[in-house]
Every structure is written in C-alpha cells, then in structure tokens.
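Thread: quick sanity check before group meeting

JM: Hey all, I'm pulling together slides for Thursday and realized we never actually wrote out the predicted structure for the chain we discussed last week. Dropping the sequence here so it's in one place. If anyone has concerns about the input, flag it before I start.
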Amino acid sequence: MASFPLLAIVVAIYSLFALAAPGWLETVLFGLPLLSGLTLPFRGGDVLLVLGLILLCVEVYRATSSSTGAILNHVLSLVVFIVALIELIVMRPMANMTFFLIVLMTASDVIAGFTVTISSSRRDWQRSQ
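JM (edit): ok, ran it. Output follows.
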C-alpha cells in the first residue's frame, strides 16, 4: 500500500464520473458560507481538486523516504501522470480546466517525488561518509 500513488484515486474517480455521470462534476454539492454573506459553491470537480491537493501534500511527505517502496511509488506516479496526460489529450470529456489541473498535480507529484527522494538520499549518503 505504501507504493500506491494516491493521486491515482483522484484520476480514477474523475475519469469514472466524466464518463458515467458527467453532470455530477458540475453539480453544486454544498456551499461554504463566507463572512461577506456570499456562499462559495463546491461542485463535484472542485471537491476532487481539493482532495487532489490534500493527497499531493501526503505524496510529497511520503517522498522523503528512499526505500524500495518509495521508488516504486515514484515509478507508478509517473505511470499515473502519463495515463492522465493521454486522457486529457485524447478523450473529449477530460478536455477541461479541472482535469488539466489534476494532470498538473500528477506532474508535480512526479517532479517533487524524484527531487525530494534524490536530495534526501544525497543527504543520507553524505552523512554516512
């Protein structure tokens, strides 16, 4: 489970709803009342973006490990990014800003994961000398 890329959950849920129930992504699920008296509406796609940001933070934290599971997680995260990018380019229901931002999150996960792991491993290697 430690090597499973969490953003794959967001990509899978978005893909499922975009193909099976596209109206859900645009439906207002709830509103957040603001001090100005207005209500900030949260649509299905917005909720998935918030979930993606939370999971991206968890992924960056998990990237600090240099174990075999962490390396496998980075490789699988790269696969998730490639699949999401292909979906964005090829599939009409995915061609929107919400899914584009999810693809950017997967790209950030890949870049941050490799960068954090390499710098953590380098620091550990320098201490051992």
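AS: nice. Strands lie at 28-33, 39-43. The helical segments are 7-20, 22-26, 44-62, 68-90, 97-128.
JM: adding both to the slides.
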